[in-house]
Amino acid sequence: MLEDPTAAAPHLAPPSAWPASYPQGYAVVDVETTGLARDDRIVSAAVYQLDARGAVQDHWYTLVNPQRDPGPVWIHGLTEKMLAGAPRFPEIAAELSERLADRVLVAHNAAFDWSMLAREYARTRGAAPVRQRLCTIALSKELGLPLPNHKLETLAAHYGVVQRRAHHALDDARVLAETFRPSLHRAAETGLRLPLLACQPLTEWSEGPAIGRQRSYRQTWRPSRKRPACPYPNPGRYEPGGQLVQGMRVAFSGDTSVDRELLEDRAVEAGLHVATSVSRLTSVLVTNDPESPTSKTTKARSFGTPVIDEAAFMQLLQDVTPAPPTNR
């Protein structure tokens, strides 16, 4: 029988208090990568399968040959020699899918882990069997945990979880599983609505020419091109809870699950103005990491520009209000 490292975790909600709306299972995931860009690759992956109340059912770990320079070896410790004999992502995709299927993906900064997985699956012309994700950073904020910051090691210290090998996918996933269970039970005790987000899989992918350093392979959707000017006037800022209106200026910051070019294409097709920077005229900023200190998020806060995440933006794109007629 597999030992449950979270068995002694405090703050466990009694069975009678468990919300019926909570998911039936979770896949706690951590991936180590060659970098942070959209063309970077996974070099190792780990999954802890948890039941509906956060008890460990199984765990799994694999190295992955990225077919390129392994990137920041000083962080993840995986050299090109160590990865040379590892399976490539297409060879582990089926087994990984079995670990993820019918579960909510849980990760620390889940937008990043999900985006890396989505791209790897897209390269295989497939899709991850994941429909929702839960970020433990967002959950910690919802719970109001007294943390000085939202690093994994800080969350681990809060719950008394010992971190043995930081930036090793299996140990990071273990630490996350051990900290997620008490957080999940705290949420259940108060009837908190879990901060679940929809996972938008990539459904299109094409190989681009190899560029950059030796043995580096870059994937892209299509050659970049100049977009036509938006034909509608800017109606002003997006009102949270309302609808997008044609002509609104939308800016993007950080990583996205849907490839950035495709996301921008959808915005343009809906009649929105895609802006490359944030100004006082920006209607809304789309980012999956609103706490990141990027220039765009910093400017958005200073201007009072509304900020929404990618999943909310994708929902809003389905029903954009037509621009009001102009008086001639």
TrEMBL record:
<dbReference type="InterPro" id="IPR036397">
    <property type="entry name" value="RNaseH_sf"/>
</dbReference>
<keyword id="KW-0269">Exonuclease</keyword>
<protein>
    <submittedName>
        <fullName>DNA polymerase III subunit epsilon</fullName>
    </submittedName>
</protein>
<dbReference type="InterPro" id="IPR012337">
    <property type="entry name" value="RNaseH-like_sf"/>
</dbReference>
<dbReference type="GO" id="GO:0005829">
    <property type="term" value="C:cytosol"/>
</dbReference>
<dbReference type="GO" id="GO:0003887">
    <property type="term" value="F:DNA-directed DNA polymerase activity"/>
</dbReference>
<dbReference type="Pfam" id="PF00533">
    <property type="entry name" value="BRCT"/>
</dbReference>
<feature type="region of interest" description="Disordered">
    <location>
        <begin position="216"/>
        <end position="237"/>
    </location>
</feature>
<dbReference type="InterPro" id="IPR001357">
    <property type="entry name" value="BRCT_dom"/>
</dbReference>
<dbReference type="InterPro" id="IPR013520">
    <property type="entry name" value="Ribonucl_H"/>
</dbReference>
<keyword id="KW-0540">Nuclease</keyword>
<dbReference type="InterPro" id="IPR036420">
    <property type="entry name" value="BRCT_dom_sf"/>
</dbReference>
<keyword id="KW-0378">Hydrolase</keyword>
<dbReference type="GO" id="GO:0008408">
    <property type="term" value="F:3'-5' exonuclease activity"/>
</dbReference>
<feature type="domain" description="BRCT">
    <location>
        <begin position="240"/>
        <end position="328"/>
    </location>
</feature>
<dbReference type="Pfam" id="PF00929">
    <property type="entry name" value="RNase_T"/>
</dbReference>
<dbReference type="InterPro" id="IPR006054">
    <property type="entry name" value="DnaQ"/>
</dbReference>
<dbReference type="GO" id="GO:0003677">
    <property type="term" value="F:DNA binding"/>
</dbReference>
<dbReference type="GO" id="GO:0006260">
    <property type="term" value="P:DNA replication"/>
</dbReference>
